[in-house]
Amino acid sequence: MRETLPEGAEVLDTEWELLLECARPQPDPQRLAERLREPLDWASMTTFAEDHSVLGLASARLANFDENLIPADSRESLRVWRRAYTLFTMNLTAEMFRLFEGFAQAGVEALVIKGPVLSARCYGDPGLRQYGDLDLIVRDAEIQRATELMIRFGYEPSVPLTAIQAKKIPGEYVFRQTSTKLLVEFHTELTFRYHPRPLPLENIFKRQARVEIDSHLLPALSPEDELVLICIHGAKHFWEQLSYIADVAAFVSVQKLDWARVQSAAAEVGGERMLYVGLRLAADVLGAPLPENVGAVVRSDRVVGRLVDQIVRWLPAAGSAPPGIVERAMFRVRMRGGILSGVAYLFRLSFSPTEEDWVEGTENKRHWFLDALGRPFRLARKYGSDGKS
């Protein structure tokens, strides 16, 4: 997004309204046509959609409108982007099939999260939701074997085996294929730091479901666990992209959910308020339907309402004007629910080192405690408004 957006956001009001309509679970063709008849800066519109990771949705929603409403060059630009992205998702999906075949042969159990599976669940198309990598869950006990397998499959790990053997826990285990540059990220029960309570991985594996993509049945989270996960993921990123809200809105609109199980899954990881914020955003921003009893519970939490108002204010900037370190800290505390639990959550996040806190060359030698002590200072430098907080 352009750096001038926070000061001149009103210039893009029309583009933003069009983008919101495109991101709705059931966009209204008449409202879309009305937006398209208004003066639009199509270059800004495309950039806006890409910054919010909803260009795939926008291009699909606008595909059937004629040149009287969409200029020919803009239509062609969207078509070219869509074709390139479709090829990318096809390659990534084919690679996902190959990896799971290899995991099955090696006896390594994994689940797909987000990416093509979430796209299929939300939009009925593995290539409609924007993503740049493949995300998988494995048990922490299996991560060394999984790393060795990925190296055998032609991937280069970002986390060295020496660090894994030293029990250092990164934010995620990233692998890049040396020939195609495709990215695969592994998550374990120990890398989900933004879950307020430890992820009950064995329960997650027991509740797993199968999602069909191109005649392949892929192991995935249960719908209830997936909904909780994408709400916590949105909270992790301060809901700064419209795509996070669009995913929740589409998910609750098309999936048959056991809402008692959703509540139970959220309580299991202490993520009730994160879930409520995600549902409230989906309903208020994009008109997602919620069952009456669920909507009543979500709207009864006044802190959820204040958090949603805060998110809606910074949402159009797509992360180009991120909240400062104090605002971020207070957001984390409120998002957790409860003062004591919120402060404890913030403290844990502030002192849980990732690979960004490791000292290069000493990953397997430097004690994690030293990494933890340095983490708050790195976060202050990164998010402090003047770099000296």
> What percent of residues are in strands?
5-15%
How many strand units? 7
Largest sheet: 5 strands, mixed
Q: Tell me the helix content.
A: 55-70%
The average pLDDT value, as a whole number, equals: 90
The number of helices is 18
**Spatial strand sequence of the major β-sheet:** 1-2-5-4-3
Distance between the termini: 26 Å
Radius of gyration, whole Å: 21 Å
H/E element sequence: HHHHHEHEHEHEEHEEHHHHHHHHH
Secondary structure class reads alpha+beta
Shape: globular
Q: Give the low-pLDDT segments.
A: 1-11
What features would you describe in this structure?
The protein has 389 residues and is α+β, with helices and mostly antiparallel strands. It has helices at 13-23, 29-37, 42-51, 55-61, 72-106, 115-123, 143-152, 161-165, 201-206, 223-236, 242-254, 259-268, 272-286, 292-300, 302-314, 325-336, 339-350, 368-383, and strands at 111-113, 134-137, 155-157, 173-177, 183-187, 209-213, 216-220. The chain has a 5-stranded mixed beta sheet with strand order 1-2-5-4-3, covered by helices on one side. It has a two-stranded antiparallel ribbon with strand order 6-7. It is globular. It starts with 12 loop residues before the first helix and ends in a 6-residue tail after the last helix. Mean pLDDT is 90; it is low at 1-11.
SSE layout:
Blueprint: H1 13-23, H2 29-37, H3 42-51, H4 55-61, H5 72-106, E1 111-113, H6 115-123, E2 134-137, H7 143-152, E3 155-157, H8 161-165, E4 173-177, E5 183-187, H9 201-206, E6 209-213, E7 216-220, H10 223-236, H11 242-254, H12 259-268, H13 272-286, H14 292-300, H15 302-314, H16 325-336, H17 339-350, H18 368-383
Helix pairs in contact: 1-2, 4-5, 6-11, 10-11, 10-12, 10-13, 11-13, 13-14, 13-15, 16-17
